[in-house]
Design goal:
It is found in: Plastid, Chloroplast. Its EC number is 3.5.1.2. This is Imidazole glycerol phosphate synthase hisHF. By secondary structure, the protein is an alpha/beta fold. It folds into two domains: about 200 residues, Class I glutamine amidotransferase (GATase) domain (Rossmann fold), CATH 3.40.50.880; about 250 residues, TIM Barrel (Alpha-Beta Barrel). The chain is built from 16 helices and 29 strands. Helix 7 packs parallel to helix 8. The two termini are about 40 Å apart. The chain binds ligand 1PR. Ligand 1PR binds next to strand 15, strand 21 and helix 10.
Length: about 525
């Protein structure tokens, strides 16, 4: 019976599978890691979460003999679940840095999403899927949304219809899942798809558990707009790690003691927001720019605990850069990011260091490949790297007054200025830099960022709405997803940002922390306004 609770996991160490481990444990199962090909052949049930890029994954599978073991395991029709790249590797080949040969079990070539179809790449976020064939593990999904994050996808064709069990529409129809006998694979991430995702895993792990009622028929949807809860975290003067919240980035109370505003405990709040329906949770370690994050063990602890109970994506930012500690030991930004990923982050977010990287790139016109942004996205993929921008509005009489891109503003400045540019800052808004948000966004997209978290210091904590001019400027300038941030004060601010700009997600902090507006009300309002959301 003990054996019944064991799941064999093929983790070749290329990235973060902590979320999946957490989800499996949460469901009451134990994990046995594959060490050698025989472990695959001896598995009772096998999960293969593909992470990283196609070519290095195939390399490992070929070199270790695990590829061969996988093929015979699957050919014997034994219980298998591939996730994301774990689905793609089953196909003949991939165009990712290729063509590169895959395991060749399913006819078809994995190709990149085409952004000329009007979609942003990577495909990040929540989509409903169209179930084409009874698939047992998908029986609870119906028309609910699941979480995707990928730039490549396999397409259905006459040659692989016998495998395809659902499709999803994003620019074109791609394969969302396959099933043949006991062999399953999904392009989305069940471990990050909330309750609905956990039910997919549960059904795979325990196929006899619930024989269902007739499965609800899923209908493909548009990509849902995401609502993200953000926790700005720092140590207060007593040494406790707290969730704080600034007014235009000033997080101290305006009292005699001048203490750091304390809005709650990070792990508790993250768990609460997950239950309330947040599509993602972000942690920003806001003093990471001066305190080395790997020295900040409580923050890593927070991540570890939060990720045990939060089954939607977690992003962590603050202090991602190269660093030499007091003992002269050097840490690369990649090591810092790796520790964040190991501790439970699905994406990392880079602020200050991305500004320096973009300045350097614009000056030299060459990609050095050495910036934290480039290194981390090369190893973990673009979709795992967010760049957080902290711009401040600078009003202008005439756009010709600066070399940076400006925009006409909806509300004129204090002296009747009709234009503004948005100056990037570093170190938590403390220092302005000679680069605009527009220039930065375009540069970091080229350097490998997968997403932009667009704050605005002027609007932060004001509750008067997002800076629509800024968000429009940036979301029209890049083809990666843009998260609108700073200024949400009412449900109408969310529908405004989605109807007036091309933002893919809207983030808020203060209104959620102060319990002024529940996440559920935001979603209900968006739904009423005809905006696709995950309910
Ligand atoms: O520069 O790589 O170490 O990263 C530091 C990170 O910390 C950056 O992402 C930066 O945005 C963030 N940060 C630094 N100082 C502050 C601060 O507030 N003093 N917080 C800070 C950024 C802005 C948002 C906030 C939204 C929504 N906070 O995170 O959550 O503005 O707030 P609202 O809904 O209440 O208006 P690095």
């Amino acid at each position: 019976a003990a054996d019944d609770s064991v799941v064999t996991l093929l983790d070749y160490g290329a990235g973060n599978v902590r979320s999946l481990r957490n989800a499996i444990r949460f469901l009451g199962f134990n994990i046995k890691d594959v060490q050698k090909p025989e472990d695959i052949l001896n598995a009772k049930r096998l999960i293969f979460p593909g992470v990283g890029a196609f070519a290095p994954a195939m390399d490992v599978l070929n070199k270790t003999g695990m590829g061969e073991a996988l093929c015979s395991y699957i050919e014997q029709d034994r219980p298998f679940l591939g996730i994301c790249l774990g689905l793609q590797l089953l196909f003949e080949s991939s165009e990712e840095n290729g063509p590169v040969k895959g395991l060749g079990l399913i006819p078809g070539v994995v190709g990149r999403f085409d952004s000329s179809n009007g979609v942003r790449v990577p495909h990040i976020g929540w989509n409903a899927i169209h179930i084409t064939r009874e698939s047992q593990i998908l029986d609870d999904i119906g028309s609910r949304h699941v979480y995707f994050v990928h730039s490549y996808r396999a397409m259905p064709s006459d040659d692989n219809t016998e495998w395809v069990s659902s499709t999803c529409n994003y620019g074109d129809n791609f394969i969302a899942s396959i099933r043949r006998g006991n062999v399953h694979a999904v392009q989305f991430h069940p471990e990050k798809s909330g309750d609905v995702g956990l039910s997919v895993l549960r059904r795979f792990l325990n196929p006899k558990s619930e024989m269902t009622k007739k499965p609800a028929q899923g209908k493909a949807s548009k990509l849902a707009k995401r609502v993200i809860a953000c926790l700005d975290v720092r140590t207060n003067d007593k040494g406790d790690l707290v969730v704080t919240k600034g007014d235009q980035y000033d997080v101290r109370e305006h009292t005699k003691e001048n203490e750091v505003r304390n809005l709650g405990k990070p792990v508790d709040l993250a768990g609460q927001y997950y239950k309330d329906g947040a599509d993602e949770v972000s942690f920003l370690n806001i003093t990471g720019f001066r305190d080395f994050p790997l020295g900040d063990l409580p923050m890593l602890q927070v991540l570890r605990h939060a990720s045990e109970n939060v089954f939607v994506p977690l992003t962590v930012g603050g202090g991602i850069r190269d660093f030499t500690d007091a003992n002269g030991r050097y840490y690369s930004s990649l090591e810092v990011a790796a520790e964040y990923f190991r501790s439970g982050a699905d994406k990392i977010s880079i602020g200050s260091d991305a500004v320096y990287a973009a300045e350097e790139y614009l000056k030299t016109k060459v990609k050095s490949g050495k910036s934290s942004l480039e290194q981390i996205s090369r190893v973990y993929g673009n979709q795992a790297v967010v760049v957080s921008i902290d711009p401040r509005r600078v009003y202008l009489k005439d756009p010709k007054d600066v070399e940076f891109k400006s925009t006409r503003v909806t509300n004129p400045g204090p002296n009747g200025e009709q234009y503004a540019w948005y100056q990037c800052t570093v170190n938590g808004g403390r220092e302005g830099r000679p680069i605009g948000a527009y220039e930065l966004a375009k540069a970091v997209e080229e350097l490998g960022a997968g997403e932009i978290l667009l704050n605005c210091i002027d609007c932060d904590g004001q509750g008067k709405g997002y800076d629509i001019d800024l968000i429009k400027l940036i979301s029209d300038a890049v083809s990666i997803p843009v998260i609108a941030s700073s200024g949400a004060g009412a449900v109408e601010h969310f529908s405004e940002v989605f109807s007036k700009t091309n933002a893919s997600a809207a983030l808020a902090a203060g209104i959620f922390h102060r319990k002024e507006v529940p996440i559920q009300s935001v979603k209900e309002h968006l739904l009423q306004e005809g905006i696709e959301v995950r309910m």
